[in-house]
Amino acid sequence: MSQSTVSLKQVHAILRHQVESLLADPSLAHQLPPLLLWGPPGVGKSSIVRAVCEELGIAFVDIRLSQREPVDLRGLPVPREDRVDWLLSGEWPRDPDSAGIILFDEITAVDRSLQVAAYELLLDRRLGDLYQVPDRWYLCGAGNREEDGAAALGLSSALANRFCHLEVEAALEPWLRWAQERALHPQVIGFLRYRPGAFFDNSADLQRGWPSPRSWERVAHQLTLADQVGLDADALAPIIEGLVGPGVAAEFAAFRSWSGAMVDAEAMLRAETQIQIPERADQCYALCAALVYHLWRSPERERAQRLDRFLEITLHLSSDFATLALIDAIGGSEGATGEKGLQILGHPRFFEWAEKHGTALGQYLPNASLAAGEPA
After folding, report:
1. pTM here?
2. Which of 248, 168, 169, 176 lies closest to 208 in space, CA to CA?
């Protein structure tokens, strides 16, 4: 029976729980099992570990085991008169009051000799009498599966038994929330809303570019850079193809061409042009993504005007697209009571908005009307 999968959001919650428990009571260091995150390349396994460290303000040590030798873990033997001393790597944390996560990445891509070298660290949190992992440091691992086409040699049963195993899946909605929080290029967000099947596909040629959360993030950065330097579409096309593969790149190029034919969303938010709602579904997805992107990137002095205009524009949309735009704008269904949610749901115009689109919104935010009433 295959193991059930978990989303990156669930991984984040589990990992944060483990680390916060350890920080609150360092005596749990030998009781909390290390996590091993399984999943295909590019789904964000190592990124989620780094993100938890940033959120908690703790250190992060990334050990790429596929680039190491056993001596890198155990230390280098140095003869000293009638004995042998060991020189340990300087990357191991030594301050007993420090805190962080040590990630043993690519652990499934190493041979058994290196796995054996990691046993003692993962099981006993020590290297003989030479080194002891400080109690406020959590250990975890990440690796690819054999079916992913990545370098994967599997785990010995002895090492596997030391971990709590989590099978990570590539989930679109949480990634879109993450992408919006980081203001990734709206055309990537709009396209993946329109073509969710293009988000992740490891059935393509895995020795070339293929769609994954990592490659779409890189596409978004390339688009932003191209906008800044004025790179034309012909020069940008092979870059995108090299990241996500030819088939999806062609679809994305067509989406960009169609969405580029519509009115400027930022100018519409600034009330510099009339409200024009496109008829094509792909252009509506692009419009919603662009409206959310430009809404929160506006200067503070323009925020009130743009919020009013945003609600006015979405009043002209069909309820499904209006709800999509509003949910994205507040940061997902969990964001109703956050700062963005209170600004929008507490806006005077929201009552007018709710009269038209409230039924559709209620499927996502059952208490939206209450949330709007409190700040108002």
Report:
1. 0.73
2. 248
